[in-house]
Amino acid sequence: MIKFDCLWELMKEKNMTKTQLRLAARLSTSTFAKLTKNEMVSLDVLARLCKVLECQLSDICTIDLGEKV
User: Fold this and answer.
1) Which of 1, 21, 48, 67 has its Cβ near the most Cβ atoms within 10 Å?
2) 3-class DSSP state for residue 1?
3) Looking at residue 26, what is its pLDDT?
4) pLDDT confidence of residue 11
């Protein structure tokens, strides 16, 4: 299972609201809702988030290998 806890922490460090991040990354509300529920999103979405936040993929998500997908 993928977890986006790191994304929310990084966003706070950069003083960015969820709305600001969603708009900057050009994400729909439904796609952003998936992030908040730790649901799967496309690699394109993750790449856009990394570009906006100027970070690497490992900075915004982790994969829990102990849980089933």
Assistant:
1) 21
2) coil
3) 97
4) 96
Nearest Cα to 9, choosing from 63, 57, 61, 65? 61
Token pair in block for residue 43: 């690699």
Relative to beta strand 2-3, strand 62-63 is antiparallel
Tokens representing 12 are 């706070």
Cα distances (angstroms) measured from residue 62 to each of 28, 29, 33: 22, 22, 18
Would you call 66 helix, strand, or coil by DSSP? coil
The pTM of the full predicted model, rounded to 2 decimals, is 0.89
**C-alpha pair distances (Å), 48 with each of 24, 41, 42, 55, 65:** 9, 11, 10, 10, 24
- The model's pLDDT over 19-49, given as tens digits with 9 standing for 90+, comes to 999 999 999 999 999 999 999 999 999 999 9
